[in-house]
Amino acid sequence: MTSTPMIINALGQLDNPNAPRSAEAAAQLNASSEQLTVDARALADAHASGLTAVNITLGYTMGDLPPYEHTLHEIAVWDAIIRDNAADLTKILTVADVHRARREGRIGVIYGFQNAVAVGDDLHRVATFAELGVRIVQLTYNQANHIGDGSMAPGNRGLTEFGRDLVEALDEQHLMVDLSHSGERTCLEAARIARRPVSVNHTGCRALADLPRNKTDEELRLVASRGGFVGIYFMPFLDVSGHASAADVVEHIDHAVNVCGEDHVGIGTDGPVTSIDDLDAYRAHLAEHVALRRQAGVSAAGERSDTLPFVIDLRGVDQFRELIRLLEKRGYRGERIEKILGRNFLDYAARVWAP
């Protein structure tokens, strides 16, 4: 391609993982947004990569923190990060904001949850979160919660009665219902009952790698058929060995396109743009982190101390350009690549966020 397309990462990070604070946080079970390092390098790398906008995870995901209070605090932390870096970052509330970010050369930051536990039993909190700028709400993490079963919940019981009410409340507030990490029945049921299209912002294809974090063709097809979106991640779950490659990313994108159609597939890398410089030191932290996740019961099948949570040959500031090159090599051309890199997510956002 002659020019870099609009790049929207449906789930990623803004962080310099090499900074001391971030490196230390990498070994913890549940690092907070305050431990991220959005410094000059993280911002420069994000700009250099061509990134237009990214959905970042904030708020409660797991652990012993008070879910609602912690989530409100995290939103305030990110509001401060964006305010302190206003020349480089802008908060995304609408599709128009994404286009404005691109025109102004700023990185759009989309607020999203990876667990909806912070709603508690009070559906009015959905409106509160919407007013504070949250635009994406993932229903579950790997384990079950009071909303539904996650991908690692053995019962695969689907949504609870409250979970169905929550999907309705999210629809009313024009928020994305993200079914990443959900169990199969949770995903299928939510996709069927939602009045607005739903998404799976970071996943792989179960048909290619039979692991719980990946979605079956039935799930992928249903989400797409309702006007939704599927983002393929750059994660170890793309290969059952746990050692996924850039070629695996392309295979999963291609399979998703064949199942969902080219208008419903994008990327949700689940990682930062800035590369880790010292992989040996990181591996030591990773082993500790994986052990903590397993001990807490929040890990997914396929996580091991030797499986890096990213694709080693598709990282750093050139990750999106390298993906474009590999897709072109696969026979993908201009318009289809533009859709996958960002347009499909933005079109999906227009279907959900529009009043």
Task: Name the features.
globular, alpha/beta, 355 residues, six-stranded parallel beta sheet, 12% strand, 12 helices, 9 strands, three-stranded parallel beta sheet
Map the helices and strands.
Layout: E1 7-12, H1 20-25, H2 40-49, E2 51-57, H3 67-84, E3 89-91, H4 95-104, E4 107-113, H5 124-131, E5 134-138, H6 161-172, E6 176-178, H7 184-193, E7 199-203, H8 217-225, E8 229-232, H9 246-260, E9 265-267, H10 279-296, H11 319-329, H12 334-353
Parallel strand pairs: 1-2, 2-4, 3-4, 4-5, 5-6, 7-8, 8-9
Helix pairs in contact: 7-8
- Estimate the mean pLDDT confidence: 95
The total of helices stands at 12
* Basic shape: globular
Structural class by SSE content: alpha/beta
- Separation of the first and last Cα atoms: 35 Å
H and E order? EHHEHEHEHEHEHEHEHEHHH
Q: How much of the polypeptide forms β-strand, as a percent range?
A: 5-15%
Spans of 5+ residues with little confidence (pLDDT < 50)?
A: none
Percentage of residues assigned to helices = 40-55%
Task: Report the count of strand segments.
Answer: 9
Radius of gyration: 18 Å
Oligomeric grouping of the chains: single chain
The major sheet is characterized as: 6 strands, parallel
Structural features, described:
This protein has 355 residues and is an alpha/beta fold. The chain contains 12 helices and 9 strands. It has helices at residues 20-25, 40-49, 67-84, 95-104, 124-131, 161-172, 184-193, 217-225, 246-260, 279-296, 319-329, 334-353, and strands spanning 7-12, 51-57, 89-91, 107-113, 134-138, 176-178, 199-203, 229-232, 265-267. Strands 1, 2, 3, 4, 5 and 6 form a 6-stranded parallel beta sheet that branches. The model has no long low-confidence stretch (mean pLDDT 95).
